[in-house]
Amino acid sequence: MKFHLSGLFFSVWVYTNFVRPKAQNTMKMPKILKDLSQESICYLESSVNYTLLYMRDGKSIVSGYNIKVFEQIFAKNEFIKINRSKIVNVTFIQKTFTSNRTCTVHLANGDRITIARRRLTTLKESHPAIF
């Protein structure tokens, strides 16, 4: 018995089963964010393949996801990447100081984070209110 598929039917079958691109938004949401509100996160710090979340009340929580995942999840206008290893919640920034070609951000919880030299100009353009 010979099985024959028409040209159009065969093309559609091949596309739907083999060629069709997969869904782009298949990134998993970290379980740790289901229990926390984004407003309570002061800043995030990467540590190899883990991320430390520093909270408003001074606690720190370790997540098994790297910082790149959190960078994609959080809104660009609420969280900014200060340097290679830290993402800061903009609402917790109190002051910025510049001395000897280094710029430092002072946070509401008392921590100080140095802004990367190469990120400084783009941050001044995108978030002029913090400078």
From TrEMBL:
It comes from Emticicia agri. This is LytTR family transcriptional regulator. GO terms for molecular function: DNA binding; phosphorelay response regulator activity. Pfam families: LytTR. Residues 31-128 form the HTH LytTR-type domain. InterPro entries: LytR-like (IPR046947), LytTR_DNA-bd_dom (IPR007492).
